[in-house]
Write a structure and sequence with these properties.
Number of domains of chain B: 1
CATH architecture of chain A: 3-Layer(aba) Sandwich
Distance between the termini of chain B: 34 Å
Number of domains of chain A: 1
CATH superfamily of chain B: Luciferase-like domain
Radius of gyration of chain B: 20 Å
Number of helices of chain B: 12
CATH class of chain A: Alpha Beta
Strand content of chain B: 15-25%
CATH topology of chain B: TIM Barrel
Oligomer: heterodimer
Order of helices and strands of chain A: EHEHHEEHEHEEHH
Structural class of chain A: alpha/beta
Structural class of chain B: alpha/beta
CATH topology of chain A: Rossmann fold
Radius of gyration of chain A: 20 Å
Strand content of chain A: 15-25%
Distance between the termini of chain A: 51 Å
Order of helices and strands of chain B: EHEHEEHEHHEEEHEHEHHEHEHH
CATH superfamily of chain A: Flavodoxin domain
């Protein structure tokens, strides 16, 4: 069983970003050739207020926490954002800003973006790839950028072919990475503290009554 | 079980009047609040430690020393004392003097509780926060537990033949609580030494507190201090109470909506559902507080935050009247129901002195 999380930063309903996310998901499922996949879709629009609340209070609502768990517990992530002002949208960035640390460590990620024209396509390389690198994800070499024009054209080498190519490349990465163990920062903190307290210079206190 | 209040010491404008209290007014109000806590039958008053506006409590032992002279029974504590940036020698001295003045009605809650900039103000390196905590506490313990201390560490000049003066009252150091909001390392530290663990609890979801306390209890046993149920646990809580639930919500909402920490974020209702915040009638406060036991087990100390977000002094004192008359007596009774006999009470100076004397007698006999 491959657990796949999909984060779509689309703001409208219907949304071309969500449409691209769905087509990439279908492409990945097809490339996995009938191996079982469990997909969790996280539509950021639905979590808009909760994301900002988490930013202000430091902890997520119950629904948002479930989305965090789905992402952190997945074997792979497909992340799709609309391009805003030469970058990802603020909502998309905010989600990853409040996602607990280490959630994406060693996570194979397929990046994709949508935009008005193909002049914004470097948003993949100049914004998304560095952010996911910072988060210690393993980013698939082939991303997908879809401009409005792409949704109107079906010539060969067009969007459908790019999606298939990106999905195939990503599945190679995903399958070679295999099942992913979620990192638990909570427990790691304890281990580090325990080593410090029981360190070579310290004999430790006698148990007190 | 002990009940009390803890204050952050924020100077916040009253959103209903736009009036800013002065620092002086806030400090004097804090004294009135602590005295009232004793008058209505609470057990503990604890003050935070902050070194930047809009907070006033930069010198907790000065405030507590003054309160020691103005109160008779109240246990005076901190919430927290910074173990990272305070010199352990000075902490030991300050609390020794305080213990003597207060006839032992003193304990201490240690925490890291710092904003980043506070470290350089006291000559410390924030990158070493955790190892500073470990080293400083080790030294503080040595100062309390040994008459003459020879010590060297990484973050402080060495001590040679140092003796703490005055020695702790009756040679028994204040009981130590280690406090954390979200750092599991602190639970590990408390468990290692077999001290108390105080989960801040407020402003955070109960699921997080549950995990922290469970971890502390498990590690307390791991280090050989007793059963998980015998670990000493304290919790924070946050209440606004009026005889009638609707009045409480109506009156508190503007304070909630504009409060530092959570204002302008989730609604009062969302925040109440997810965190220990209770805004309502005495019965609602009783019900919610009793529910804390469901996820942390039987515990020893419950402190409430009642005086923040710009609430006027008069309102805070009314809160304490309601707590003292209608809430705490019921909580004392209800928390005692079904409490296993081997769950200890929170240590006090008297019980710690008795334990120390017992240990000495046993040692002399063996």
């Amino acid at each position: 069983m491959t657990r796949l999380a999909v984060v779509s930063g689309g703001l409208r309903e219907p949304s071309s970003t969500r449409l691209l996310a769905d087509r990439l998901t279908a492409g990945v499922e097809a490339a996995l050739r009938e191996r079982p996949v469990e997909v969790t879709m996280v539509d950021l629009r639905r979590h808009g207020r909760a994301i900002m609340d988490a930013m202000l209070t430091g902890f997520p609502s119950t629904d948002l926490e479930a989305a965090f768990d789905a992402v952190a517990g997945a074997d792979g992530l497909i992340a799709v954002t609309p391009a805003f002002n030469a970058s990802y949208s603020g909502l998309f960035k905010s989600f990853f800003d409040v996602l607990p640390e280490e959630s994406l460590t060693d996570m194979p990620v397929l990046i994709a973006a949508t935009g008005g024209t193909d002049r914004h396509s470097l948003v993949l390389e100049h914004a998304m790839r560095p952010m996911f690198s910072y988060l210690h994800a393993i980013i698939s070499p082939t991303g997908v950028y879809a401009a409005t024009d792409d949704f109107g054209a079906w010539e060969s080498g067009g969007l459908a072919a790019r999606i298939d190519k990106a999905a195939a490349d990503y599945v190679r990465l995903l399958t070679s990475c295999g099942q992913r163990d979620r990192r638990d920062v909570f427990t790691e903190g304890i281990d580090a503290m325990s080593r410090l307290l029981n360190g070579p210079d310290r004999t430790g206190p006698a148990p007190r009554e | 079980m002990q009940f009390g209040i803890f204050t952050v010491g924020d100077v916040t404008s009253d959103p209903t009047t736009g009036r800013d209290p002065t620092e002086h007014e806030r400090i004097i109000a804090t004294v009135a609040i602590a005295q009232k806590a004793e008058e209505v039958g609470l057990d503990v008053f604890a003050t935070g430690e902050h070194h930047n506006p809009p907070f006033v409590p930069s010198s907790p032992t000065t405030l507590l020393g003054f309160l020691a002279g103005r109160t008779e029974r109240l246990i005076l504590s901190t919430s927290t004392t910074l173990i990272t940036t305070n010199d352990p020698v000075k902490i030991a001295e300050d609390f020794s003097v305080l213990q003597h003045l207060a006839e032992g009605r003193v304990d201490i809650m240690l925490g890291r509780g710092n904003t980043g900039p506070v470290y350089p103000w006291f000559g410390k390196d924030i990158r070493a926060a955790i190892s500073l905590t470990v080293e400083n506490y080790e030294l503080l313990r040595a100062l309390w537990d040994s008459e003459v201390v020879d010590w060297s560490g990484k973050y402080r000049t060495p001590l040679q033949g140092f003796t703490l003066a005055p020695r702790p009252l009756d040679e028994v150091a204040p009981f130590v609580w280690h406090a954390a909001i979200r750092t599991p390392e602190v639970a590990e530290l408390a468990a290692f030494y077999g001290d108390g663990f105080f989960a801040n609890h407020i402003f955070w979801p109960s699921s997080h507190t549950e995990r922290m306390v469970a971890l502390f209890r498990e590690r307390f046993t791991h280090y050989g201090h007793g059963t998980p149920e015998q670990a000493i646990v304290g919790l924070g809580g946050q209440v606004f109470v009026r005889p009638n639930s609707q009045d409480a919500v109506r009156e508190f909402r503007p304070y909630f909506d504009n409060a530092p920490v959570y204002g302008h974020g989730p609604s009062l209702e969302e925040f109440t559902a997810q965190t220990p915040l209770t805004v309502g009638s005495p019965q609602e406060v009783i019900d919610k507080t009793l529910s804390f036991r469901d996820y942390v087990g039987d515990y020893q100390r419950q402190l409430f935050l009642v005086d923040h977000a710009g609430l006027p002094l008069k309102t805070v004192l009314e809160q304490l009247d309601l707590l003292g008359e209608h809430v705490i007596p019921v909580l004392r009774k209800e928390f005692a129901v079904g409490r296993p006999v081997d769950v200890p009470d929170a240590p006090t100076h008297a019980t710690q002195v008795a334990a120390a004397r017992r240990a000495e007698t046993e040692e002399a006999q063996s």
